[in-house]
Each structure stands twice: as C-alpha cells, then as structure tokens.
Amino acid sequence: MKKLLILAMMVLSFAAMAQDKIPVTESDYSNTSVEMADAMRADGKIYVLVGVIVLIFAGITVYLISTDRKISKLEKSIQS
C-alpha cells in the first residue's frame, strides 16, 4: 500500500509543472524597476508590509527567548 501511494505521488509530481519557460530577452537584463514595490511605495502600503514583517519577527524572537529561559530554568532544576 505504501509503495503504491509513493508511486502515485511520483507520477502526479511529474505531471505538475510550476510554470512554462519564458524566453529571456535583452530588455530583461536592463530592467531595474520593480513594479509591485513601486506601486506599494506610491500607495504607502510598503510601510504596512514592513511593519507586519517586523512584528512577526519580533514575536518569533520574543517567543524563542522566553522558551529558552524556561528551558534553562528546567535544566537548572533538574541538575540541582
């Protein structure tokens, strides 16, 4: 059963294509603007995006620090 499931997943993964190949032109190499970032900066939404990313990373950092302190406290209590 497990081998059949693995075989089915392999067959399905061969058929899945993420995207078609697009030829690279000379204008692609000289493109220096990012349209999405320019539009978000013009609308003022880029600051909201940066703020959300900073909050997520800050939350993860606080969680990791608090977890580390709890683990350190447990290690000390086990050793004594």
Describe what is shown at a glance.
This protein is mainly alpha-helical and about 80 residues long.
Secondary-structure topology with pairs:
Blueprint: H1 2-15, H2 26-29, H3 35-43, H4 45-79
Keywords: Membrane, Signal, Transmembrane, Transmembrane helix
Protein name: CcmD family protein
Organism: Algoriphagus pacificus
Description:
The chain is built from four helices and no strands. By secondary structure, the protein is mostly helical. The protein has a domain at 36-71. The longest helix has 35 residues, at 45-79. The protein starts with a helix and ends with a helix. The mean pLDDT is 84. It comes from Algoriphagus pacificus. This is CcmD family protein.
Can you tell me the residue ranges where pLDDT is under 50 for at least 5 consecutive residues?
none
Would you tell me the overall average pLDDT?
84
Largest sheet: none
Assembly type of the shown chains? single chain
* Helix share bin: over 70%
Give the number of helices.
4
Could you say which overall geometry the principal axes of the C-alpha atoms support? flat
Rg, Å, rounded: 24 Å
Rounded to the nearest angstrom, the distance between the terminal CA atoms is 50 Å
How many beta-strand elements?
A: 0
Strand content: under 5%
Key terms:
signal, 78% helix, 4 helices, 80 residues, transmembrane helix
